[in-house]
Design goal:
alpha/beta, Rossmann fold, Tyrosyl-Transfer RNA Synthetase, Structural Genomics Hypothetical 15.5 Kd Protein In mrcA-pckA Intergenic Region, Chain A, 5-stranded parallel sheet, 5-stranded mixed sheet, elongated
């Protein structure tokens, strides 16, 4: 496939300044893509645009990956309310964490990492007005969606700092064009307006052609909401915010309607393999072959193959596809972070201590009714509890005795 064909197949086509997307196939370019350090971790929403950037790299494009140390000091405008400013110390910590995640996303690929704070830290306000403000149209800024959403009667209002955000991002594009010959910016759909600012600046100041390519937002087909938001919040790439097990489980439980789209975006699956996998899935959706492939590959990308194998084994043990004896010490350590644990000496005490039963009497009734198993075998009250063991009550309540 050509680049334009692969972008279409994977669902990475949205707004662009190219009149004909086949222009992407004529010559390779240097592009930039990046994120602000608004948190100490990226989410799977950011990851979608990162996966699109991987496709460009694999087709010979040269990547400049940006961490927004300067733009992060202002905060990307939202449609509903003003962002709270972060301390310089927090921004610095976030930059370091996100830089590590960039290396995970682009593992095995060469890229140049830049920080826009480096070219803004010594720029004075008057210099910025002369070099950027003088060449930026107020009409275009006022026409931006985030401005319309925030300015007007009964709306939350917009600070001058956030209003100026797109000028800062526009200058990023201009600077990278001059320093690295960047002629293309990749972004998510929500960054389209900010990205266009750079195209205008480059054209007005340097009489050079520049382009923007945006990816659509990924939408959960079942809920209609932005993909990657769960009841607990965003799905993070950082293991301390979303554990590898929960990360794996998120992908394992995605909706049937959207799993094909997610496979194309979040894995490197090829068309032939995709058709074969989806044929298997559609023939027997209860086996969730598509979700299992997606969960493993998506987890491997961010957390590594060894961790992906471990959380896959843990998941298969919990849901009856493997035996407890197949878990390694590392698997047990991972499991202990996800389910209640107990050091109780008897099964009844373990059920009560872990709050799987409210009393000794209820624990005995559960055992008598066959509602409790240990390591996959139905358990009785007089069972001698060996450690480590996996206790299961009903279908979805688990306790690790160790």
């Amino acid at each position: 496939m050509t680049l334009s064909e692969e972008l279409q197949w994977r669902g990475f086509v949205n707004q662009t300044t190219f009149k004909d997307i086949s222009e992407l196939d004529v010559k390779t370019r240097t592009f930039y893509w990046g994120c602000d350090p608004s948190s100490d971790s990226l989410t799977i929403g950011n990851l979608a645009a990162g996966m699109m950037a991987r496709v460009f790299i694999q087709h010979g494009y040269t990547p400049i990956v940006l961490i927004g140390g300067a733009t992060g000091m202002v905060g990307d405008p939202k449609d509903d309310e003003e962002r709270q400013l972060k301390s310089l110390e927090e921004i610095d910590r976030n930059k370091q964490a996100i830089s590590v995640q960039y290396k995970q996303i682009f593992d095995g690929l060469e890229f140049t990492l830049v920080d826009n704070y480096d070219w803004f830290k010594d720029m004075g306000y008057l210099q910025f007005l002369r070099e950027v403000g003088k060449h930026t149209s107020m009409s275009q800024l006022l026409d931006r969606e985030f401005v319309k959403a925030r300015v007007g009667e009964d709306k939350t209002g917009l600070s001058y700092a956030e209003f100026s955000y797109s000028l800062i991002q526009g200058y990023d594009f201009l600077h990278l064009s001059r320093e690295y010959e960047v002629s293309l910016q990749l972004c998510g759909a929500d960054q389209w307006g900010n990205s266009i600012s750079g195209v205008d600046l480059i054209r007005r100041l340097d009489q050079e052609e520049a382009h923007v390519w945006s990816s659509p937002l990924v939408i959960n087909k079942t809920t209609g909401k932005k993909f990657g938001k769960s009841e607990e919040g965003a799905v993070w790439l950082d293991a301390s915010k979303t554990s590898p097990f929960k990360y794996y489980q998120f992908w394992l439980n995605v909706d049937d309607a959207g799993v094909g789209e997610y496979l194309k975006i979040y894995t490197a699956i090829e068309p032939g393999q995709f058709e074969e996998l989806m044929g298997e899935f559609e023939g027997n959706p209860q086996e969730r072959a598509a979700q299992k492939y997606l969960a493993f590959e998506a987890t491997k990308l961010i957390h590594g193959e060894q961790t992906a194998e471990s959380v896959k084994r843990v998941s298969e043990v919990l849901f009856g596809q493997k035996t407890f004896a197949e878990l390694s010490k590392e698997d047990l350590d991972a499991l202990a972070k996800e389910i209640p644990t107990t050091s109780a000496g008897t099964l009844i005490a373990a059920l009560v201590e872990s709050e799987a039963a409210t009393s000794n009497g209820e624990a005995r009734r559960l055992l008598a009714g066959g509602a409790v198993s240990v390591n996959g075998e139905k358990a009785s009250e007089d069972l001698q509890l060996k450690k480590p063991s996996l206790i299961k009550k009903g279908k979805n309540t688990f306790i690790l005795a160790h």
